[in-house]
Amino acid sequence: MSIDYTLLSRIRLKDQAALRQAIRQFSGYVAAVIQKSLGPLGTPQDVEELTSDAFVALWQNAEKLRDDSDLKYWLAVVARNAALKRRDTLKQEPPLEENLISAGPQDAPMRQDQVMLVRGAVDSLEPVDREIFLRHYYWRQTVAQIAEDMQKNQSAVKSRLARGREKLRKILLKEDCLL
Q1: DSSP code of residue 68
Q2: Is the dihedral of CA 100, 163, 137, 55 positive or negative?
Q3: How many helices (H) and strands (E) does the chain have?
Q4: How many whole angstroms separate alpha carbon 71 and alpha carbon 43?
Q5: CA 1: distance to chain centroid?
Q6: In 93-153, which ranges are continuous DSSP H helix?
Q7: Distance (Å, rounded) from C-alpha 33 to C-alpha 21?
Q8: 0.70 cut: is pTM over it?
Q9: Domains recognised in the chain with CATH numbers
Q10: Could you read off the pLDDT of 15-35 as tens digits, one per residue?
Q11: Could you say which of 38, 69, 97, 178 is the most buried, measured as most Cβ atoms within 10 Å of its Cβ?
Q12: Between vectors from CA 141 to CA 139 and to CA 144, what angle results, nearest 5°?
């Protein structure tokens, strides 16, 4: 009987000590897989969150795994897939600053004015929309995390983000702040 089988059997029985053992045994490897998959886009918080998510997935899906499953490999696949999905999300959502005109140091005063306009535009959002917007774009929280923290459903959070982006776009176009 393999060590992975024994550990998996205990996790299937919801033995929390077995889960802690799996975390001790595999978390460094899982974090390395995530960091490599995210590349430079990933923050330490992303790595920590996705590592935790991989072990939550193990806890929730242990009964579905085959008896001869290689836990290290299974965790690596789950972690890599989640990291690639997060990386794609991060690539699609450039920070607001990337939309500001800034060709060089000579443009610093204009850039400062543009930053102030962006801040003012964000401040003009309704308080709930502003919080969601800042959580997502400034603190880089996922839609799922925001929805859970704010006790809203994910589609409501996505809708508020879309409306917030549209409102900001209109304000910034009016001020001639976007490219």
Answers
A1: T
A2: negative
A3: 8, 0
A4: 25
A5: 38
A6: 108-123, 127-137, 143-150
A7: 19
A8: no
A9: 3-90 (1.10.1740.10), 112-174 (1.10.10.10)
A10: 999 999 999 999 999 999 999
A11: 38
A12: 160
